[in-house]
Amino acid sequence: MARLVQTPPKFHPSDWHMANKMQRVSTEVQKCRSERVIAESQRLLHETEKTTLKTQSDVNKKTEQRQEEIKFWKQELDNKLEQIVRETEVLLTFKSRLEKSLESCREPLIISKKCLLNRQRRTGIDLVHDEVEEELVKEVEVLEGVIALLGRTLEQTNEQIRLNRSAKYNLEMDLKDKFTALMIDDYCASLTSNTPDIRYADNAVKIEEKFVTPEDWIDFSNINVEKAEKERTNSLALRALIDSILSQTASDMRKQREMVNVAFANRVKEVKDAKHKLETLLVMVMDETASQEENIAALKKAIADKEGPFEVAQTRLEARNHRPNMELCYDTVQCRLISEVEELTKNIQRQVEMLVGGGNLWIKDTLAQAETELRSLSRRQLSLEEEIQVKENTLYIDEVLCMQMRESVQINDF
């Protein structure tokens, strides 16, 4: 049997009115909630817009302040870099002065040592430790001391140049980083919400370990500036020291060179005077030798002049010794002949009458004594000639070899 179709239940009019009322009430409630959400959204939009604009303005202001701060330190670094570069360039010129001064000391030292070696070739009594040698030894000591001092100062200068360049490098690296940071901040300051290339960046707000605090950032640049200033100050002090050393060493070397030259001049004069006196003595000895030779010749002639009468007397005695028998008488003739021989013998041996300077002088001397004196004069002449040669050798060494060689020595101011 077919199922009967059931009709839907019918509501009471009051239900219908209630349902309509509920729809109206629900709609009103939903509308109120929606309006509140819209109002809250608009308030939030306005507030976030205001906050965003304020934050962006604050960021822009902070960025501008940061740019000014970077520019300030960049200017400080630039100024200090310029100062340290200029100071290093000046110090390099002082280094060049030191090198030239050091090089100029080597030739005078070689010449001083050559003078000492040359003077070792003096001979005889002239090989004396005189004032010249003392001053030459002092000059060698002064020059060696100056070379050692200039060498140490040059090493100190090289080290200071290295420190200056190290400070310069630190400043340049700091400036390079600040230039990059300034370029980045300039780029950031130019960005707006309408900039085409803005984008989301993952982990952009992550604070990495390598970040430094503003205090560390300031300290880093400040340390670089202070270090550069310290090295610049040290460099200035070193330049003043170099000036003083160059001036003092040049003065010391010049003074000692003059002392040596004066000692050489005095010694040469002294040797020349001694040589002149020896030459005067030599002339006197040679004159005396000539006189003695003439004296010996006169003595020999006087002896020769007495040999004739002596031989006559002896011949007479010899002849009368042959008288026969009683005629061999020791008579007055025989006695006088014997007396004559004895007298002539005595005169030949001890007394010689000779003519000197137009007058008659009686000279009591023997030929043997005259010849002894002649030999003594010859030895004296030889000794004087040898001593004069010693003086000539000394003069050649001091005046020709040493003094002429020292004329090339120049002590310059660098």
Automatic annotation (TrEMBL):
Main location, first listed in the record: cytoplasm
Bilayer-spanning residue ranges: none
Highest taxon of source: Eukaryota
Keywords for this protein: Cell projection, Cilium, Coiled coil, Cytoplasm, Cytoskeleton, Flagellum
GO CC, alphabetical: axoneme; microtubule cytoskeleton; nucleus
InterPro entries named in the record: Tektin-like (IPR048256), Tektins (IPR000435)
Complexes and interactors: Microtubule inner protein component of sperm flagellar doublet microtubules.
GO BP term, example: cilium movement involved in cell motility
Family: Belongs to the tektin family.
Subcellular location: Cytoplasm, Cytoskeleton, Cilium axoneme; Cytoplasm, Cytoskeleton, Flagellum axoneme
Originating organism: Zapornia atra (Henderson crake)
Statement: the UniProt record of this protein carries the keyword Cytoplasm: yes
Purpose: Microtubule inner protein (MIP) part of the dynein-decorated doublet microtubules (DMTs) in cilia and flagellar axoneme. Forms filamentous polymers in the walls of ciliary and flagellar microtubules.
Identification of the protein by name: Tektin
Gene field: Tekt1
Coiled-coil blocks: 367-394
Keyword hit for Iron: no
